[in-house]
Specification:
31% of the residues lie in helices and 19% in strands. It has 277 residues and is of the alpha+beta class. It is globular, with a radius of gyration of 19 Å.
Length: 277
């Protein structure tokens, strides 16, 4: 249970398990996270502990009893990152670098938690004529807004306040290396039992199937099942997929909030999903 690792954290005493956090059945709330960011230029003075404490203080109540149903929670994965730090004695980024990125021989330019070269980093954009641009003042601090470039509003470079709920920065090539490892019979990262667990669909407390494994979401397109992770925020939208029965994976990274990654991949993936095996 999370109480064992984070005895002083919020939601103490509710019996929340690590598995429930992993498969989003913990009941931990999920308020809009668009403000949980800070400028890249301010990163050296950023205090993650204070940022998390503020979020937990503003969201002290569970949304539902742990295990009752599936509901996505960014806070849940932020807390999981804190568990990793408590168990390993390392910061979450350092642990991921040493146990995921380095074994895959990924350079900092291919995947990391910081921008290695600002001159080569893609800026995030909002469409000028979009709902998000109209309401940006309600959800995005003005300091994150750059200038208009034609029909697009550029956002200044920023980081998520919690690296564990989506803080990796990388290239399609970098993420494809991770996906390729998951498709191999002998993964560099995970043993057979861990790999099997990561591909096992989960249930809620009543035994009802949920669209999650302990980490992957579960989807289907053109009659073929796949595992995926989709994420977006201010200026970006990305998705990666694994089709285990086809031995294929796809990934798309876009520097636009409004980009439909699922729609794009459904169209692209159709080319090989409907072809003869």
């Amino acid at each position: 249970m999370i109480d064992r690792y984070l005895p002083n954290a919020a939601y103490h005493g509710h019996g929340i398990t690590l598995r429930q956090l992993l498969n989003h059945t913990s009941g931990v709330p999920n308020p809009m996270p668009l403000r949980w960011v800070h400028l890249a230029a301010e990163d050296s003075g950023f205090n993650e502990a204070e940022a998390l404490a503020t979020v937990l203080r503003e969201n002290p109540e569970l949304a539902f009893e742990p295990g009752r149903k599936f509901a996505y929670s960014n806070i849940g994965y932020w807390l999981l990152g804190k568990v990793v730090e408590q168990v390993t004695g390392q910061s979450y980024p350092v642990y991921i670098r040493e146990n995921i990125l380095q074994p895959l021989r990924l350079s900092a330019q291919e995947m990391d938690f910081v921008i290695p070269d600002e001159s080569r980093h893609a800026n995030g954009y909002l469409k000028k004529y979009s709902l998000m641009n109209l309401v940006k003042g309600l959800v995005i601090d003005r300091k994150f807004l750059g200038g208009y470039e034609g029909h697009w509003l550029r956002l200044n470079s920023h980081y998520l306040n919690g690296p564990a709920f989506g803080g990796l920065i990388g290239t399609a090539r970098g993420f494809s290396r991770f996906l390729q490892d998951q498709l191999r019979t002998e993964s560099v990262l995970f043993g057979p039992e861990t790999k099997r667990l990561l591909e096992t669909r989960q249930t809620d407390g009543a035994g009802r199937p949920i669209p999650m494994t302990p980490g992957w979401h579960v989807g289907e397109t053109h009659g073929v099942a796949y595992f995926f992770k989709e994420g977006g925020g201010g200026g970006f939208h990305c998705e990666m997929r694994i089709y285990p029965t086809r031995g294929v994976a796809t990934v798309v990274l876009a520097n636009s909030t409004e980009f439909s990654s699922s729609g794009f991949l459904n169209r692209v993936d159709r080319t090989f999903l409907e072809s003869p095996r």
